[in-house]
# Entry
Amino acid sequence: MPDFPGSGLLASLAARLGPRGFTSDPAEMAPWLTDWRGRITGATPALLSPADADEVADVVRMAAVAGVGIVPQGGNTSMVAGATPPADGSALLLSLRRMRAIRSVSASDNVVVAEAGVILSDLHDAAAAVGRRFPLSLAAKGSATIGGLVSTNAGGTQVLRFGPMRSLVLGIEAVLPDGSRLNGLSALRKDNRGYDLRQLLAGAEGTLGVITAASLRLVPAIAQRAVAWIGLASPQQALALLRRLEEATGDAVESFEIVPADGLDLVLRHIERARPPLAGRHAWHVLVEATAPAGTPDPAGGLGDALGAAAEAGLIEDAVIAANEAQADALWLLREEMSEAERIDGMAAKHDVSVAVSAMPSFIGSAKAEVERAFPGVRVLAFGHLGDGNVHFNVRAPAEADGRGWLQEQGAAVSRLVHDLTTAAGGSLSAEHGIGQTKLDEFARLAEPARMAALRAIKAGLDPRGIMNPGKLIPPPAFGAP
# Structure
């Protein structure tokens, strides 16, 4: 490890945090030094686990004086190594996992205040206890934490109706890079005092400060839901179906996920609990969930009528609506286990891209053809949130290739082509996973100069010493030359 500026920093941190909040034991730190996808491993002289915002502020203040970097980490579920420390051990790892208090839940205000270390599934339970729900969910809900979800502006499966995490954040409490406290938890629906700092910190990936708590929007609990699995011929028909369903059911549809036949095949092959949802084989599939609060019509009726009309019009080939909660969960398992099934099957160059919703069906087809033509033998798997204009465009290694070796040799070139095609279509190389470490070079290559200049200016203004999550989001030179 390198020598740290400032005499006795680690000793001072250990004294401030105590044995529960400070460790330099390699065995205790090891599980948190590798990213979720197992590609990047970092190093750190110490893992810091503060118990409250006061301790976070003291840690950041001490690190700022010493000029030492800090990498905030929640559930360590980042898909882009955004919470993995640098390999040279030059930064401290700051875990928020001990800060797991849900400070308040208000059904009358439709607000919950949760600390950064609260696990998403626990937040769901707290909201349900007062007859409300937090309308953001994702496959990692059992380990992803609120601080990480806010810091990365997480998406999930309800974005179609409720938007990403930014849309659900009403207030933020944070420690800024100099150790000062931002107390912005007041969940004011109107607040016109200049720059919106909560929105600046949401999606900043920990590069502008450490989020310690957030006020989040709640919505009425689901009284009834209808989940359907549909087989159809193309992404174009899938989008046409979505628009038909929206017209028929209003805003009841909140999830609309597209899955290709080979993606479903992977889940059925590798996930023991998975079962075929339909009798026949279809080129594409769609998972739809429509919901309704208490006192409103059962969405199953409207969804069933709309699917029947779509079948008569030749828009869909087959469909099934879950008859109970167990069947609904079984249909969702087919979508939620897609990433795990793909991981089991082998290596892939993974991409999280977005284009305009209307352009996504044709983009899936044209980009798939171009990538498979440029890299013979690869297999493109595009699936995800069609209604948001966001798909996971993953390029699997040729069946006969050594997956890890192929990814090392070809992965960068594959990603470059996918990102070029996305940019040419007016899209983004990061729809919901962030930039982190793994997309840093591509972001620098493709971002327009005005965007990059603005990001660097904001970073330099708030974090002039560059201590917050170094090496993430902002490509070098992060703070500009003198």
